[in-house]
């Protein structure tokens, strides 16, 4: 474990976030263990991106604390230790894939070898010389992911990294996530696709800013009596809606 890292990659304690006058996270407490692939799932608008933004320190929070790798979220010391890939890939269209990744590498003090390694990790070697503006949506998001990988962050926060990818690429990316976790990287990965839950070591199900599940898939299936993650989540969501209506 790297110096300063703790057993928990992220500790969220009574986090309250209001966006545009709307309470998005009323009172969220959750721990993301280190060195695992943790899936953040739930209906659209449930607060997944907001939670990720709080973890990387770009979200204004009303109250509560978010501790990342032992430091308050957003601390300058975390800048090189945490990687964040948003839903909208942040890349330069007028640069090639290689130039984009090398640019981000330079910004964080990583060398060109790390940039090439990251391009290979996301399977974009064959497109390294192509202008980013000419890439597909899935390829663009992989450039963004490669840029986040260049300095080997201890925590990677990925917002829907597999959107728009075909099944083969999705499988390959999930393999990469597990390789990174096996090498000690903590991964917080959001997804709309419920079958991706089966690929995570631990699942967080967030609905309307509240955590409906925080456990490994086998425990979730046992608790709900469901056969798969999607059925389990739907039953928990239905139960929460019934409770809210009563
Ligand atoms: N910039 C913003 N200003 C005000 N409210 C916002 C803003 N961005 C998001 N929200 C609101 O915050 C709530 C949670 O949004 P968030 O993006 O965190 O959800 P999500 O679970 O990531 O959704 P999705 O799966 O669709 O990306 C939503 O009700 C949304 O309308």
From TrEMBL:
InterPro entries in the record: AAA+_ATPase, ABC_transporter-like_ATP-bd, ABC_transporter-like_CS, P-loop_NTPase
Keyword entries, A-Z: ATP-binding, Nucleotide-binding
Domain spans labelled ABC transporter: 10-233
Residues in the signal sequence: none
GO terms for MF: ATP binding; ATP hydrolysis activity
SMART domains: AAA
Record's protein name: ABC-2 type transport system ATP-binding protein
